[in-house]
Amino acid sequence: MKIDTIELSWFRGAATKATLKTGFKSVVVYGENACGKSSFVDAIEFIITQGKIEHLKNEFSDCNNCVRNTETPDGEDCKARIYFENGGYVEAHVPQTGRIRFEASSDNLLTAIQKWDMQRHILRQDEVSDFIHLTKSKKYSVLSPLLGLQEYEEIAQNMVRIRDSVLETSQYQMLQGEFATIREEINEVLPNADAETRKKLVHSRAKKYAQVPMDETVDTIAKTAITALETLLQDKEPQVKRYLVMQSLNKIPIKKKLESVIRSQDKLAKISENYIDHKIPILENTGKILESVEDLTQKIECPACGQYILGTEFKDHVDQELGKLKKVQEARNQAVAEKQAFTVALSNFISQYQSENAFLEWLSLPENKGINSLFVRLTEISIEEPTNRWSTALIEKLKVVTNELCPMVKKEAKIKAPTTPTIVDDLNFFRVCLKIPRLEQLESTLAKIDLLLSTLNDSYNKIREEIANITEQVLKAISQDIAKIWSLIHPGQPIENVRLSPSEKDKAIEVCLKFYGKEQPDPRLTLSEGYRNSLGLSIFLALANQSNAKENPIVLDDIVSSLDREHRGKVTQLLSSGLAGRQVILFTHDREWFGELRRFLEPENWKFFTLKKWESPQIGIEVLPSSYTFDEAEALISTHIGSCGNAVRAVMDTELPRAAAKLKLAMPYMQDYHNDDRMATEFLDDFISQGERFRIKDIAEWKVHQDAIDAWKEARRLLIAWANRASHGRSLSTPEARTLIDACKKALSYFDCVQCKKKVWALEAPNYVQCQCGSIRWKLE
Amino acid sequence: MASYIDSIEKMKKKPEFNLSKILDATTNRLKEAFPDAQKYLLELSKEELQTHLTSGQALRVAETLLEKIGVKADSR
Predict the structure, then answer these.
(1) How confident is the model at residue A123 (pLDDT cuts 50, 70, 90)?
(2) ipTM of the complex in this document
(3) What distances in angstroms separate CA A393 from CA A371, A380, A400, A627, one per listed residue?
(4) Whole-prediction pTM value?
């Protein structure tokens, strides 16, 4: 969108009004330092950036004060308005106090203008090489909009935003921390076990304390074990007592003793003998009986067996009987002893069993019903006196109970009572195991989040990869333009292959070049300030031609100040190539270059302005009309007579080279840039010296146009005498100024035919050019 | 001067940068495990992901994705 007019009112250096009317053409604005050139650039920047001017930002936070002319009258607002080719306008309105307003002929226009990228539209003198001096990542940021990758960058950033939000919302880090802690705890009790192994190990250990099916969850198994263990811990004393009682009971061999009883009683049963305890003492006293017997041939009744035995055999018989009875007695005594022993043992057994309430409580538990009933049955058996012969029923009862009970006691006696450390260890084990479900849940949750995060990361990386690919391709294309512009400004110089290159680091761009055939990663290493500036300009111009802004103007503010004459000339060529049809608004304080631009840039595409010397805030910026004319020079006599000489010379500097080009005036070759640096007087020299080529028709004869030659001589003389003096010392009197203007007007007037009013080069023939009516002619050589 | 302009234009016309296509390729594992989540991401890629997401919007997207992969706030 081309700019038509820029109007400033009390903005920066402007007073009531300063207008720069481009007429949609490119413009060159010349002005000495402090004439107000930058005020126009500031106005454009101020509007684009909605009230910010980069080079003032550090000094002024209050833009109202930084852009208002210091002498703005009360009640007057500071304004900058830009008209565009569609007739619309945008305006910055800066009141003395209050908010800055931006207005436009339409909201769309304001939005569109304020979307302009400053760095693609305005290049200032002190910013020419800024791009080169930026960090690689800053270069990428600057170029990112130009590369057309903002939306892709936005997408990539969105992926990051979503990933970060997933991390935040899922409390991922916290879950990871919790997972790590639990995993460490579980690994300590169940090292390197997978889920299945873990369950098996937990179940195996839980079986010590509780019966729980394997198909229960680990959680249930652990909980059941914990309940059992807690009960166990609470009932630790009965368990110990149980163990101790069982140990004691097991040591009492009632079963063995009962077997002895049974054996002795069986043996006794085979030797049936009554009254043995009576018979033995009698037999033992038979000696006295024999002493009282005088006739041993008589038979004597045996008190033991009642038989009559001869006196002589009686003693042997008594001894035999006594021996027999003693054996029976011995057996009987043995049986009694066995019974006694059993009785004692049983008594101890029962006594032990009944001695500990804790043990009885243990017995009373439902799971101990069997053994308990045996104990009860045992106590209920009435034991007879050991001296008595025990009935078979009794023996049988005892046998049944002891046969069942003793193995159980023996078994129980082997089950040691758990110690407190064991219980505590196991309890801790199962308590840790209770966390297994949480571990598994966390594992699953984290795996899901990991999958999501890795997907988002993969997507982000792929997007970045795509951006890098596109960046590389676009930079390659842009680099071709930079190289072209660079080679135009610096033809045949050993600095080549100038290009933008994506850095290995993501989101970074380097400026690279070859210096005398050697690759340089950074232009700052080898380039002088002037070369850096022309490289910066090359980059700016290449980048400024981005597709979505090619209809917009580019503003160049004193961009060649660090370039020498030769390279300024190259920039002139560059500008004359048209920059792909872009509107250029160029400001320069270089009068010489301004003259050159006026000679070389086509008037159809370019307009030229001069700013008057800035005198005071009240007068402000004054823009001279688009092109110098003698009328304008005359106008300066009354206002800025010092500038009048310059204006006249500017007219001649512009018009004479054009005439020379059309008439193919032969000019001596000059070294380097001096060819382009000729002044009006030098052209006049050559016109005068080749004056014979200029003929005027006198009836049928072509005569040398002596009047023209004389006029050129006079103009040359006065330009040297007065115009040069005026431009250096600004001293020129009004009569001198008028004489100078008249002489120059006259010198140029001879290129026009007085008859047909056409230029002498209106018609072209093989050997000459002439006016339309053929009254004046210029011979071509 | 216009050579790279043409390049950019060509580049923009190329279907190289197709977000849905990129996501289609990078979300295979997600698609296998949580097809709804992948579908949701692909839907987002048509419009929402191509404009700046505020932190609130990004948070909502994250919550939806977490829900679709079965990681609800109450189960965490």
Answers:
(1) confident
(2) 0.87
(3) 22, 14, 10, 149
(4) 0.51
